[in-house]
Amino acid sequence: xxxxxxxxxxxxxxxxxxxxxxxxxxxRGDKIVGLGKNLDPxxxxxxxxxxxLLVTPGLIDCHVHVYPGVSHYGIDPDPNCLERGxxxxxxxxxxxxxxxDGFRRYVIEVSATxxxxxLNISSVGMVTGVETDPAVGELEDLRHCSVSAALETVEANRxxxxxxKIRLSANLAADGRNELPALKLAREAAEAARLPLMIHTxxxxxxxxxxxxxxxRGDLLTHCFHxxxxxxxxxxxxxxxxxxxxxxxxxxxxxxxGKGSFRYPVAxxxxxxxxxxxxxxxxxxxxxxxxPVYDLATTVSKFLLLxxxxxxxxxxxxxxxxxxxxxxGRLGTLKTGAEADLALFELAEGRFEFSDVAGETxxxxxxxxxxxxxxxxxxxxxxxxxx
Length: 387
Ligand SMILES: [Zn+2]
Description:
Shape: globular
CATH class of the largest domain: Alpha Beta
Bound molecules: zinc ion
Helix content: 10-25%
Number of helices: 10
CATH architecture of the largest domain: Alpha-Beta Barrel
Radius of gyration: 20 Å
Low-confidence stretches: none
CATH topology of the largest domain: TIM Barrel
Structural class: alpha/beta
Number of domains: 2
Oligomer: single chain
């Protein structure tokens, strides 16, 4: 037998090789070993019929929160990421140095979703109290921000820690007083670890240009289309020149939709001025799982209605974040030799309403609906046969 599994009759869409065409995909063990037309099902131990579906590389979500039971934001990764087509996810700062070991032991090592993490510069991570109470932010006390503790944790976990995370919001940082010192410490840790820094800015007391001045090539500005203070537009709706300069020097714009961080008017204004995100991520957590985010596929559907092509939108959740996780060529692609992580979607056509974080809606013609998923060559979810 040539293949352990053959995914046949689907429309293969793989932006990493400009592919959008009917293709069968042969898998052996946990690798892709064949991509072609009319691969022989008699050569396969098992087949998945993808008729009428898109077959894409497993999606990569570079901003989620999956430390349930410790951070109140946390959700279970397997039902909410993997089973919805996200085979790889990056937890963005739920854990810091003091809460890290549990994250590795009880989440990363037992989840079927491939997980990576950005370590919060605050050693407590996001254990900040429930949102209905006055939140006690992780930057309220700078003693939580230990560069040496962060570096020690990074060094012991380089296989899964991909960068440093900081949340800059005045109400998480002693009315803003701790924001700049904490940012400097996060910069120092990222620099010493030679890893990227992901920064959240909604509600920061610092001007965005001041924050961007601390950002280098490969760093990620998440929540890039939020509508709070320290956003990417000036008061007249023009993209700040500091944002253009940052993008030019290689700072990546990441969507990080979240519960409060994605506004259509901001995305529309920015995109009209030629500023597109590098990566589409969901910032999926317990407060947006039941809407307005739902999952990464829904977030992608919002970019389709904003005029991004299917190929380009899928690139932003496959090949582009594969670079962020340093696994280009292995993840986010259907090339032979790559990891056998695949997602199957229905591209439903109709009139679908999608809401941003303020409840403003737009109607889209396309909706990407997760129907099946394969992770490391194993069928996690088989598409239901309709015909
Ligand atoms: Zn987040």
